[in-house]
Amino acid sequence: MQVDRVSITNKASKLVEELKNRHGDVIFHQSGGCCDGSAPMLLPKDDFYLDESDIHMGNVAGVDFYMNQAQYEYWKHTHLTVDVIKGRGSSFSLEIPEGYRFKIDSRLFTEEEQKHLST
Amino acid sequence: MSHSKPKFQEKYGNFIGGEFVPPKNGEYFDNTSPTDGKFIAKYPRSNKDDVNAAIDAAKAAENEWSKTSATERSMILNKIADIIEENLDEFAAMDTYDNGKPIRETTMADTPLAVDHFRYFAGAIRAQEGSASELNTNSVSLIIKEPLGVVAQIVPWNFPLLMFTWKVAPALAAGNCIVIKPAEQTPSSVSLFAEKVKDVLPAGVLNIVHGFGPEAGKPLASSPRVDKVAFTGETTTGQMIMQYASKNLNPVTMELGGKSPNIFFNSVMDQDDAFLDKCLEGAVMFALNQGEVCTCPSRMLIQEDIYEEFIEKVIARTESIVQGDPYDMKTQLGAQASEDQFDKILSYIKTGKEEGAEVLTGGEQFQASGDYKDGFYVKPTILKGHNKMRVFQEEIFGPVVSVCTFKDEAEAIEIANDTLYGLGAGVWTRDGHQLYQIPRAIKAGRVWVNCYHDYPAHAPFGGYKMSGFGRENHLMMLDHYQQSKNMLISYDKNKLGFF
Lengths: 119, 499
What we know:
The structure holds 2 protein chains of 2 kinds.
Chain A: E1 6-8, H1 10-23, E2 26-30, E3 40-44, E4 54-60, E5 63-68, H2 69-75, E6 78-86, E7 100-108, H3 111-115
Parallel strand pairs in A: 1-6, 2-5
Antiparallel strand pairs in A: 2-3, 4-5, 6-7
Chain B: E1 14-16, E2 19-21, E3 28-32, E4 39-44, H1 48-66, H2 70-86, H3 88-99, H4 103-127, E5 131-136, E6 139-147, E7 150-154, H5 160-173, E8 177-181, H6 188-197, E9 206-208, H7 213-222, E10 228-232, H8 235-247, E11 252-255, E12 261-264, H9 274-283, E13 299-303, H10 307-319, H11 339-354, E14 358-361, E15 381-384, H12 390-393, E16 400-406, H13 409-417, E17 421-422, E18 424-428, H14 434-441, E19 446-449, E20 464-465, E21 468-469, H15 476-480, E22 482-490
Parallel strand pairs in B: 7-8, 7-10, 8-9, 10-11, 12-13, 12-18, 13-16, 15-16, 18-19
Antiparallel strand pairs in B: 1-2, 3-4, 5-6, 6-22, 11-21, 14-15, 17-20
Helix pairs in contact in B: 1-7, 2-4, 3-4, 3-6, 4-5
């Protein structure tokens, strides 16, 4: 058994596919902080500088999902599901002009799952 | 007294070169109110062509505006302050409908603070001086402040007029031209501002481009033709903006949120007096502006020996909050700014419960009635848990506070600093030593001592750690919008003798 840290709903996956067709390669980066933060941002792959301070948490709908290491330390005991909701953010995330926001639903990993985490 | 909804045009334009102009691609987006879910108006869905037109207008105005005297600019800022003050009710009503916050806050806080902010920078720029140093008998160093040129600014939706003002007032005072993108959730009061001041500000000095982050924000932040980028928002976008600016070696200022601790030492309970009453109000400040404040005191730290008694009073005060019709002057808690905010807050409450946090009050949606039944309201919520829980570490941006206890000063400081952020903090005590020593030990840019959520001009505001950098609300902000020209003058008639 292998347990992933991140998954994605069908609805969100469909929107990701549409946005990939329009924008090319993309990544998810989980944002922290103010306003539209604490939400996953879908960004053009080459726009966002990634290095060892970003943890690769998995791949959903063919898109790599990253989080800042410091933030990861507080999140790592929870499983994340990328979902989508109608909404209007003011960040640079690519779904915003379409009138949607990606969002995260979280649940705690069970002890059994913790033993089998893939990353 | 009940206020009424403001009047809106059906469609607004960008404000470029002193005129309202339609977006070049002819596309608009619908802006709706979070108070009742209804349509407000159409705003331009701008792209890089509109941004470039705005930068062109700013560039065209730059030479003349940068040469205006501090006196002239000061007079203009004072006129702007007067105009906002004369139209205070209209600005307040607009921000309430656009953002969802109660009318008493836009009337008594947001709008008067914006007025005062323009007046502060009108004064600050006249009091600012360069400097002269005699380095030796024959050498003098002069430092002259110069404007940067054209600055790009991107502002959030939680205080639409006030956040706009925090950015615009110092930049104008310093002699810069501006291209600003308001948040797409709250474009209204900024448009009203442009309409009211367009005869006061020379054309092209202030340009407003509406639209979405990836389409309008990105070309603005990455333009090699701007001289600075200022941003308030979240961390990932903050990093991206810094990257874009780094390509042009442009300076940036960033205000990126927090998870501010509000610390109550046991001495607050020594007497049942006016000060204790003030402490309780301070504890409930997490609900101010629906918790949609970067400095929301979203972590409450209570000394363990007073916990039971104190939290009982805090819960009672929280449950007395009047929620609902944002246009009623008695309403203390309005609507969350958007459906996705609303959803995020409820999702965090759920995560908190799963992590083992106990809901002491609230914890669910507030169902408003009548006209506001489709708005996005959340009950003020207190969660009890520990500082490693995600609800203690992430900015929920809602009326939700996470409470924990501490044993002594050392533990209070340790918990307070166990966060990625460092924007605000509150310290409440009757102990004269604590009220100096604890704030000094907290790694945050603003520590309120025996008060909270006060934002007067003249007190610098900005972050440590992942909360960003730059100090707004203060003449220090002038420096962030200025170059320092150094003229090094020799009065020696004789050569050095090197060549």
